[in-house]
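Subject: design request, 121 residues
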């Protein structure tokens, strides 16, 4: 049984909570802050990174949002985190409550198996 040794994408579930500073801004100010203070740094310092954003404040008191980041490899993920930490995103606009990082179906890649835990009905 031969395991695939190519590097799988890295997926990070970033659990965040908005800060009072972020919430004090209007929606337009938030969009402006994100597009001028955060996005340019991510775009200038990273490669091979994608994201999806989920609102959760109406289901959780612990976190307000989940950002799902997928990076081509661990280096791309490291560059993303370094970039975010150098912007107001990190601990000014959002408190990063937790980071859950993994690779999809890692067990299957390790043992050369079909990904039986990934289900579509």
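Subject: RE: design request

Done. Sequence follows.
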């Amino acid at each position: 049984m031969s395991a695939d040794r190519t590097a799988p994408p890295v997926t990070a579930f970033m659990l965040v909570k908005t800060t009072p500073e972020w919430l004090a801004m209007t929606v337009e100010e938030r969009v402006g802050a994100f597009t001028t203070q955060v996005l340019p740094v991510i775009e200038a310092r990273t490669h091979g990174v994608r994201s999806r954003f989920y609102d959760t404040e109406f289901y959780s008191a612990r976190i307000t949002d989940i950002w799902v980041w997928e990076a081509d490899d661990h280096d791309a993920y490291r560059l993303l985190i370094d970039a975010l930490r150098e912007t107001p995103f990190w601990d000014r606009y959002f408190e990063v409550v937790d980071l859950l990082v993994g690779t999809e179906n890692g067990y299957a890649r390790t043992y050369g198996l079909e990904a039986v835990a990934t289900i579509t009905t």
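The chain has a mean pLDDT of 93.
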